[in-house]
Structures are given as structure tokens and as C-alpha cells.
């Protein structure tokens, strides 16, 4: 049985994008730049899907009955984590033989296994996502450039073929990502709790401090501005992400709280050496993050 | 008695910069762009002062005996907070009549009053600093552009003349700052503990977490990168800043810890509504910070 995605170059493949928000819209724009054969798209809001069609971001809206999903060689699901399994259940009868499906979900849990179990033998689900995004939410914030120089995380399970993994690596490169890394689902969620969930929490916590007021804006510099850059996020999406990764996120908050206690103790004790040591530890770590 | 700084335009004034690190070096470069009459400079490291001279950032090194400080119409002190009073004590006999002195110190305490008390009648000290800076430290990181669109904080006391305040406002504008704001020394240190000290602490705490390892770099996106941008700071300078502002910094850490507890509780309780509420609170606040 022929798997189109393995046989043909990107420009000869048809893609379906499920969910046309910030990330889905960015995939659509990037795929258009790559001049792929055809882009199908759908969104829970039909108005958004129509807007993408009118803007020539997609070539066709996916039918309500899912019938034209058959054309898709590759399906990219960029919907809320909770919605992926539902989408697959509802549409699996419309998937083409040999289709490759992937997602852009920031928390994995058992989802990759759940979806693989629902797919017919000839189809494959390879989980992953770009470490990309930006403040705000929705189609209006989408941008093909979010992939540029980002990291693409691939989360294969023991069920995945080397071909699917390799394809996603190549696809990430084509999107403009600087590199791709492979990681297990368990490690993924643990790592992401630290590198993604936690900095969003610290940013929100900073602007939510009781010390914030209408004059804060006149007294900030780059430090505050940068530290709070991602404080303006989509509450619906992110409450999903945090709650689907609860244990890991709580562990990361606690690790972080220990560092704050270390700071507080050093300052309370007037311990200049301890403070310097804390900062000397951080410098080389930060310089490793390009 | 004539106060040169009040009578003459910037291009006819001689400036002395005391401390040629990141901030002092940036003043020197900005003053050169403004084509002021003459720039004198000194640094605790004579090699740094010579380097500035060789790079044409300054026109003359301040003599070890301070004798040529007499030429300065305006002196800008950009040394560690602890060092300013010492500099004034040692050099007050060399200050010209009508000289205006200012600083760039991130924490004020009683320093403005202390210095005003040391100065002769004809001289004036007006405290302030740009809300500007960047990662790293030292002359090599200095850049005239740090002032661009930044906020300039002016911290007058009851001793200051309206002329000195107005001059510093105009000077900030000439440097490229977007606006200047006036605040009392007490309010200054309290506000800065929140808008400057705290985000440096949160950035350092993030990279110092026990979860950081050599693979972290492959799993980060803009969120982590931005939130930790200022984690690489000068330990000597910043331990001074934190310890000179102890009570305020501790209060800010504690306010911040309350927000983290709020997050942790909402996640532990699986309280989706509370999480959304936290994020809904932060969005508009963040959007207020241009």
C-alpha cells in the first residue's frame, strides 16, 4: 500500500488543517509558502474557516460531514488537547489509506496512544509540536514566521515507523525550524511543564502582583517587559494545558518556589556571598540558551 | 552666580562620567552622538578609562587627583550605589561653581540627601536614572541605544530646584528616552523593587530551577527565553542593589509568592474557573505595558 507522504515531495501533497487558530493559521501560511498541492481547513467557527478561504490561506473548507478529508495525505490537528480524540472518532471513516496525521498539542499524556488505537492499520499518527507561539490567540495572530529558528519537538511512541519520524523531521526543517528533537511522551510533559508551563505562570504572576497599578507602565524597563511578555495568553487553551499536565506543573511550581525561598533567605540574612553565588549560577545557564 | 548647565545648550557643556561600565559607557556614547563640548571620564579600572579614550568615547581621562573635574558643567555618576558618596567626599573640592551632578543609581535610600549635604551651596545634585539596561555588564555591553524609548526616572528631593528638574527632563529627551517621570525616593525604591528587582529575581530563579539541564535549550520557545532574558546579570552590582533595598525586595518576593500559591491551589483543585480568572486578570494588565 502506498503512503503518499513517503512517496511525494511536499509540493505534491494535500494537507488538512484542523483548527485555524494562532498555530493552525501559522501552519496554513507556512504551507502556502511551501506551495503544497492543496490545503483544506476547518475550524469550530465556520466564520474563521470562511475567512481563511477568503484570504487564500486554505483552498477548501472541510465539509461538515468530513467527506473531503479523504483528499488529505497529511492531517495536522491544531485544536485544544481535549478535542483531538473527538475529531478522530468522528472522522476516522473519512481518512485516506496511508494518511499521516500529526498534532501541535503542548501536552501529550496518553493522547498519542489513544489516537493510534483509533486509526486504521494503514494510517499513522506521529505526535509533535513546534516550540513556537506568541502572545495573544486566534487566527489574527497567526504568522508563518513563528517556526523560524524554533525547536520542533517530536514525540514518537513505540508504534511509530522510522519513516513517519523522518518525515516530520524534514517537515520541521521545511517550516523553518532550526532543529527537531525526539522525546518520549512522559519526558515531554515533564520537560514542557518546566520550559513552557512554568514561564507562562511566572509571567502572569508578575503582572498579577498586588503591586501592579496604573503607573507601573512608567517604571518598567526591558527586564519587566521581557519577564511578562507571555502574560497575555488564551485562558481557555491554557487552562486545558495546565490541567492536563497537573502533577508536572505542580512539581515545577514547587521547584521554582524553592529558588524564591533561596533568594528571600539570602536577602533577609544580608548574605552577599549567597546572592552572588545564586547569580553566578544563573549566568552560564542563561548564556547556553540562544 | 552663573550655572552653565542652565545657560548653555548641551553642545556647549562639558560632561564628566564617573564609572564607565554598561551604563556609564552608554552615556558616553550617547553624549558623543549629541556632540557635547567635551567628555571626561574615569573608572575604577584605569585600563577601562584608557580604552574609552582610545575608542574616542571620552576626550580626557579624569586625573587621579580629580583636578580636571573642575571643567565639568555636569557630572554623571554611574558607579555602584555604595561608591557615589565616597566619590563626592573625595572630590568635592574639585567641583566647579554651579556644577550639576546626577547619578544613574537603581536604588536611592538616603543617598540623594547625603550627597546634597556634602555639596557646596552653588552645586546641585539631582537624582535619577534611566529605566534602561541590558543583559551582561561592563563597557563592552554599553550602547547609546539603551536610552531609546525608555523611561527616565527623576527622583527630586525638597532641596532640588525646578531648573535642575527641568534640565534633567530635557536631557532625558535628548538621550532618546520616551518620557520622564518624577517620584520621591521612598516611592522610587518601593516601585523599583517590583518593576526591576523582582523580574531579575524571577528570571534567575527560573534558570536556577533543579529542572534545568543541558537539554533545556532544545525545549524552549519564546516564553522561556523572554522570561529569563535578564538572568545573566552582574553579581557584584546586583547584590548591592538587592541589599540596599532589602525590605522592599522582600515584600515584593512575598507578594509574588502569593500569586504562585494562587496558581498552585487552582491547579491542585482542578479549578478551571479560577485558572481562567487568573489569566483574564493578567491579559489587560500586560497589554497596558507597551
UniProtKB/TrEMBL annotation, chains A, B:
Homology family: Belongs to the prephenate/arogenate dehydrogenase family.
Region forming the signal peptide: none
Pfam families cross-referenced by the UniProt entry: PDH_C (PF20463), PDH_N (PF02153)
Residue span, Prephenate/arogenate dehydrogenase domain: 13-290
Phylogenetic lineage: Bacteria, Bacillati, Bacillota, Negativicutes, Acidaminococcales
Pathway in which this enzyme or protein is active: Amino-acid biosynthesis
Transmembrane segments annotated in the record for this chain: none
Alphabetically ordered keywords of this record: Coiled coil, Oxidoreductase
Organism from which the protein derives: Succiniclasticum ruminis
BP terms from Gene Ontology: tyrosine biosynthetic process
Coiled coil: 246-273
InterPro entries in the cross-refs: 6-PGluconate_DH-like_C_sf, NAD(P)-bd_dom_sf, PDH_C, PDH_N, Preph/Arog_dehydrog, Prephen_DH
PANTHER family: PREPHENATE DEHYDROGENASE, PREPHENATE DEHYDROGENASE [NADP(+)]
Keyword Coiled coil: yes
Single GO molecular function: NAD+ binding
Protein name: Prephenate dehydrogenase
Amino acid at each position: 500500500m502506498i503512503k503518499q507522504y513517503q512517496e511525494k515531495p511536499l509540493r505534491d501533497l494535500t494537507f488538512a488543517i484542523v483548527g485555524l487558530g494562532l498555530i493552525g493559521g501559522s501552519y496554513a501560511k507556512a504551507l502556502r509558502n511551501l506551495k503544497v498541492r492543496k490545503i483544506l481547513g476547518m475550524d469550530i467557527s465556520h466564520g474563521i474557516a470562511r475567512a481563511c478561504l477568503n484570504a487564500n490561506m486554505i483552498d477548501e473548507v472541510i465539509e461538515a460531514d468530513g467527506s473531503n478529508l479523504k483528499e488529505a495525505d497529511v492531517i495536522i490537528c491544531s485544536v485544544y488537547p481535549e478535542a483531538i480524540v473527538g475529531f478522530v472518532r468522528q472522522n476516522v471513516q473519512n481518512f485516506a489509506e496511508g494518511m499521516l496525521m500529526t498534532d501541535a498539542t503542548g501536552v501529550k499524556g496518553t493522547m498519542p496512544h489513544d489516537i493510534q488505537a483509533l486509526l486504521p492499520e494503514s494510517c499513522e499518527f506521529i505526535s509533535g509540536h513546534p516550540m513556537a507561539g506568541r502572545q495573544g490567540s486566534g487566527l489574527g495572530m497567526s504568522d508563518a514566521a513563528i517556526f523560524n529558528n524554533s525547536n520542533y519537538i517530536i514525540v514518537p511512541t513505540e508504534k511509530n515507523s522510522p519513516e513517519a519520524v523522518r518525515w516530520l523531521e524534514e517537515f520541521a526543517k521545511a517550516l523553518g525550524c532550526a532543529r527537531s528533537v525526539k522525546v518520549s511522551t512522559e519526558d515531554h510533559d515533564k520537560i514542557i511543564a518546566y520550559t513552557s508551563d512554568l514561564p507562562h505562570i511566572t509571567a502572569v504572576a508578575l503582572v498579577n502582583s498586588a503591586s501592579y497599578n496604573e503607573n507601573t507602565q512608567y517604571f518598567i524597563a526591558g527586564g519587566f517587559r521581557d519577564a511578562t511578555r507571555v502574560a497575555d495568553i488564551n485562558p481557555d487553551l491554557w487552562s486545558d494545558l495546565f490541567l492536563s499536565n497537573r502533577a508536572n506543573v505542580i512539581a515545577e511550581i514547587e521547584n521554582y518556589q524553592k529558588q524564591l525561598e533561596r533568594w528571600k533567605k539570602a536577602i533577609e540574612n544580608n548574605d552577599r556571598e549567597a546572592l552572588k553565588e545564586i547569580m553566578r549560577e544563573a549566568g552560564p545557564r542563561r548564556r547556553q540558551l540562544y
